[in-house]
TrEMBL record, chains A, B:
Catalytic activity: prephenate + H(+) = 3-phenylpyruvate + CO2 + H2O
Annotated protein name in UniProt: Prephenate dehydratase
E.C. number: 4.2.1.51
InterPro entries: ACT-like_dom_sf, ACT_dom, Chor_mutase/pphenate_deHydtase, Preph_deHydtase, Preph_deHydtase_CS
Pathway: Amino-acid biosynthesis; L-phenylalanine biosynthesis; phenylpyruvate from prephenate: step 1/1
Domain Prephenate dehydratase intervals: 4-184
GO cellular component: cytoplasm
GO BP field: L-phenylalanine biosynthetic process
Site (Essential for prephenate dehydratase activity): T177
Domain ACT: 202-279
Gene Ontology molecular function: prephenate dehydratase activity
Pfam families (alphabetical): PDT (PF00800)
């Protein structure tokens, strides 16, 4: 059986780039929103869904986390980490210099990520916002001979046959974006890259808002020397003043430490849900 | 002197709506990206900047926080919390029923926030993505007599003279968005609303990644019974494995408790920076 993979589209986005680099041979379907992709996995329409978890361009942590927490609980099967690399793309017919460029098109967050570069090297260009970086590349591909550019990734350059006039124009060199792979069928999730580390993501809700509650929660991990790589509080949607926490623990779920943490936290009145225990894959280049 | 306020535009966005409801009489300038708005405050081009801090549509926590932490340190003078209310908007010439609507236009995150509503009430509509909710409203205003709709807020409906065919179509009733007011000139920040609470935001960097480091940091707050309303870890841009924390403490900076926390954490090798101690304004309706 060939697995089907859904991803947050359209084509030419970082999500598509990550899916193409990670999976081979599966049938791929594009979805236009994060909830639509998650629903499709839940309904059995597709086997695997890939959505951004931390990515300032194609999605937000909040939307993915909130939908998983409040609407559809699907296990996280893997995490894919990729560097964000933004390039300046022009039509192949463009023969001018960088300073000649009059318009720069991209998603507003991609433009923001290249803010200082644009300020220094493209001071005469006006900024134009598109719904995605892929859309910007498409637009530039239709403007032969004009001094206009898009900001986007290598995949967008390839799809729309654009010339990369300058590589890596993003202001911060160590920007990464994280994707999660959701599925109910672990046996179908086949990733050929080496596993970089293993992680467990927990959802913890506190019984009430009180001084030191989080401190007590962290004690359960600290005295076991379980290292956390991420912690984030998010308000519950039920009203103001109620919070849940998403905690990433840098080790796989086991039969001793994690059940111990869970029992202690439940005794304190917390609810503990395992959102996934899964391998992390780091892609160095795209 | 009349203060000048910069905000993340374009017109018809939630940021503009929040600025209009919060400030009166000041001169207002729209900026197209978060870094451009923050730079303008830093350069003295404007007196006050308003940017989203937690908002799935017009910006991300990450972009604002990263720019403030890594590039331009400006004090936070106030926080504005507003409910997210999405409406279904049509041209005033539209006389059909909801089920007749063939196209829905909006920012992908706004469409995602109304995912279940669209699924139930607009099953025949195709989805079209725009760079902002304001842009979607503008587009619909130009399509007289056609069965097309935009998702956006009341301000967008007013500016583009659209008819609100259905109010509050967002799936989660308790979604809020938070904006921060940045300025070097406290005396110019005049907000007429009642203060809901006071808050202090700290940036804490850990000396290294070790089990229990965050637990130790939180001890300093816990034994003083200082309540935290938000905690978020973010990777430093200097490489993998280094983190900083943004912590919101539910009380104003004082001369005893905060200096005590700071001294203890510095003794542990942490760096502590006060990003702001400021009032919170909650707007109930827009």
């Amino acid at each position: 059986m060939t697995a089907t993979i859904g991803y947050l589209g359209p084509k030419g986005t970082f999500t598509k780039l990550a899916v193409d680099k990670t999976f081979n041979g599966e049938v791929k379907h594009s979805y236009s929103t994060i909830p639509a992709c998650i629903d499709a996995v839940n309904n059995g329409e597709i086997n695997i869904g890939v959505v951004p978890l931390e990515n300032a361009i194609e999605g937000t942590v909040q939307l993915t986390v909130d939908y998983l927490v409040h609407q559809v609980r699907l296990p996280i099967m893997a995490e894919i980490v990729v560097p964000i690399q933004q390039h300046l793309l022009v039509h192949t017919s463009f023969t001018g210099k960088m300073a000649d460029i009059k318009e720069v098109h991209s998603h507003s967050h991609a433009i923001a990520q290249c803010h200082q570069y644009i300020h220094q090297h493209l001071p005469n260009a006006t900024l134009h916002f598109t719904s995605s970086t892929g859309k910007a590349a498409e637009l530039i591909s239709e403007r032969k001979g004009e001094p206009v550019a898009a900001i986007g990734n290598q995949l967008a350059a390839n799809i729309y046959r654009l010339h990369t006039i300058q590589k890596n124009i993003h202001d911060f060199p160590n920007n990464h974006t994280r994707f999660i792979v959701l599925s109910k069928q672990q046996e179908l999730v086949k990733i050929a890259h080496p596993v970089q580390s293993e992680k467990t993501t927990l959802l913890i809700t506190l019984p009430s808002d009180f001084a030191g509650a989080l401190h007590q929660v962290l004690s359960a991990f600290a005295w076991r020397k379980m290292n956390l790589s991420k912690i984030e509080s998010r308000p519950m949607k039920t009203g103001l003043g109620n919070y849940f926490f998403i905690i990433d623990v840098n080790q796989p779920y086991d039969e001793v430490l994690f059940p111990g943490v869970k029992a202690e936290l439940e005794a304190l009145g917390c609810q503990v849900t395992v959102l996934g225990t899964y391998p992390v894959y780091q892609l160095d280049h795209l």
